[in-house]
Amino acid sequence: MWILPLVGYLGSIVGFCFLTLAIASGLYYLSELVEEHTVIAKKVLTKLIYGIIALQLVLVVVDGFPILPTLLGIFSHVIYLGNMRRFPYVKLSDPLFVASCALVLINHYVWFKHFSHHQERAYQNMSSYYDAPSNMPTFTEIASYFGICVWLVPFALFVSLSASDNVLPTMGHEGTMSAGGVDADTKKRRGQGMAKALVDGVLNTIGEISAMSKFKRNDRDRL
After folding, report:
1. What mean pLDDT comes out for the span 3-27?
2. Angle, alpha carbons 87-97-86 (nearest 5°)
3. Is the pLDDT of residue 186 over 50?
4. pTM of the predicted structure, to 2 decimals
């Protein structure tokens, strides 16, 4: 077969494009909701952080999760909570924000190593090839833990927080900036969440590339 594999590759590419557009649209919509309901979003995120910390403690007591990785996870969420001081605005150079970005990766690595080692030991303790490994979490359970206890809060903060460069000017500075000739597009980008700014940046880049390609094509046609 020659054509069917090509159709499969084409379908995978189209599906990936649709999935990317769906994720981008969802991020944009969530960012719009946070901008309109900042107070509610802050309360929800704060309660979510406390809820995940409580969940991690319950997993230690009931399911015997390792203490050190759990303490790292709790410490990470305490650092995430520090970003809520000036919600929804954050400085990209703020030590708490930088520490949050680093802890997301460290937390993911530590728990990935834990579950990998746990799975390896479960297979080593099998007495026969046909035995099923005992006391080993399923893929759904591991993925759910990563999604809720590792990535949910950082992802929510990424959607909700706005970089300080995108903050709206105060009333005292707005007239000065307008008199200084700040264009409307610059004002439009201010106050956006990081996720929304990222989506807008990608769309603007694609539009500029398309316009540049069309301009070059018109030049070739004239020649």
Report:
1. 85
2. 20
3. no
4. 0.67
